[in-house]
Amino acid sequence: MASGGGGGAAARMDPEVATELVRKGSTLLLLDVPQRTLFGIDTQVVGPVLPALFVRASNNLTGFRLSLPPVLLQIFSVGPKFKGMKMVPPGPHFVYYCSSSRSGNEFAPTVGFFLTTQPSEVIVRKWDAQEERLIKLSEEEEIRYSEAVRRFEFDDQLGPYNLESYGDWKQLSNYLSESAIERLEPIGGEITIAWESSWMDKAPQSDMERRLMEQLRESKFAKNVPVQSERRGCYYTSIPASVKHKHVSGGDLTALNLDKTSLLESVLDKHYQGQEDLLLGELQFTFIAFMMGQSLEAFMQWKALVSLLLSCSEAPLHTRTNMFVKFLRTFYYQLKHGFQRTQDSRSEDAANSLFLDEAWFSRDIFLYRLSKDFFTVVFEASVVDGDLLSWARKLKTLLETTFGWDLEDNAVNLIDEDDEFAPVVVEMDGS
């Protein structure tokens, strides 16, 4: 087998073991991708593979504070020999890229897509220079290139998937099934902010989120975004912001909206066939599309799902305890990986080495209030499941250490009147 070079596990791997992994793993063959294109897959935090294959994206590529694009600090800048990735484990993955100008200083919006690979499968895409994106080939061409891959004709031009970071990716995608991806992904599969411009103008937002969205629009990674697009976004589940019943008194409606367990049950029955893991899969889909694909539509859906779950009192303690253990574990790893720093980050640029920016979760955004109220429900319960309590404590510690929040502060009231997911209080007539 020709050497493809690599870092981490691949660099120290026995040649026979590596050959077997290449045979059993899937391959992503990417043809004619221009140099300096930024490319990433999953949560890869990898050093240079080969100078001719990849060049590590440097810190001066960010240029703005909003840290969705600083995910690009963790991805590859394509070199002249790059033809894709090998040794990709079977299962769901997220591929994302940005085309670059010749100077390497200007970038098109990030484009990402999910795919589910099978053992020994070869997936082929080719760069369309006019549209600056990866496209599928005809079935005949794909078969021809797949056979060439299996003969190792492209092996020295394929970068190895970093298996040491695969565990991190599994923590972010363990509920993400192929059927869930097919249900949620847009027509054509591509997720990009370039097709969300009209949606962003209509989406309800808090003051902070409006400022953040404007910041993203003005960034270099969102240049050349079309004013309008006929493309449809992802097929996300509609999550009502509040419970509404015609024949329920105002006081009962207030109670239903302060504890959204009944709304959660309604959503599960109506949209997920009662299957909790489908909802958790959508939670993971939206976080990945937001964190790596720069999709603001995905952020708003992720926020809606998190808001619904954190607004439940009865479900975590009694009716859906196991689901909430899984939710807290999923939510914990999302925030942990989203805010982890690169291994080689230095103190002077550490603030720019995060996947996400703390501004997305500052105290005047939804997460502080909702998590504070949720922890009160769990920690003050007379009887509580041990696993639920354990993960709630882990999440609370993570939020306090990452953001410096004081979640014991009872004097703080940060309800944003513009936030559609804030608690709904229904006043009685004549009160």
From TrEMBL:
Gene3D superfamilies the record matches: 2.60.34.20, Aar2, C-terminal domain-like
Domain of life assignment: Eukaryota
Pfam families: AAR2 (PF05282), AAR2_1st (PF20981)
Domain AAR2 C-terminal: 236-408
InterPro entries: AAR2 (IPR007946), AAR2_C (IPR033648), AAR2_C_sf (IPR038514), Aar2_N (IPR033647), AAR2_N_sf (IPR038516)
Domain AAR2 N-terminal, first and last residues per copy: 73-186
Family the UniProt entry places it in: Belongs to the AAR2 family.
Protein name: Protein AAR2 homolog
Species per Swiss-Prot/TrEMBL record: Urochloa decumbens
